Amino acid sequence: MKCPFCSDMDSRVVDSRLSKDGLAIRRRRQCERCKKRFTTYERLEQSLPLVVKKDGRRENFEREKLRSGILKACQKRPVSLEEIERFLDDLQNQLQESGEREIPSRWLGEQVMAWLQQRDEVAYVRFASVYRSFRDLNEFMSELQELLRQSPPPARNKSTRK
Fold first, then answer.
1. What is the CA angle 22-71-54, rounded to 5?
2. What are the structural domain ranges in the chain?
3. DSSP-derived 3-state class of residue 135
4. Over the stretch 21-76, which tens digit does the pLDDT of each residue have?
5. Spatial distance between the Cα atoms of 96 and 51, rounded to a whole number of angstroms
6. Do residues 105 and 62 lie in contact, with contact meaning Cβ atoms separated by under 8 Å?
7. CB atoms within 10 A of CB 155
8. How does DSSP classify residue 136?
């Protein structure tokens, strides 16, 4: 490992331990030439497919970008961060296991919308309104009407009034 101080290539590992999140190995190294210490991290390299955008561009899958969109949709809604992280973990695992080299962005959006629709209809509509880029109020209303058709009727209050 190249020393960040003197650029010498000889260093030795002084200490190794698992990182706090358990996803990397933290190594303390010491340069053999200048004797200064530095830290390196060893992480599992994940091969995720490229995301093919609507305009044909290809981008690396960015979990954080997807997470950000979901968090915006779920703002002030009863969807926990743990649920979101679990969904993203499952989605990322599904992508890795698929063996695909490329996936359409549309597929990702549909996965998120299906998950949000099961969790919170308001978050679903928020995400769908950005994802589907509704051109006018009529398109937005059509989506809401479809959602209402799919939803079970609200539970009636069984308390009796006197």
1. 100
2. 11-43, 50-150
3. coil
4. 787 899 999 999 999 999 998 877 678 899 999 899 999 999 999 999 999 999 99
5. 13
6. no
7. 6
8. S
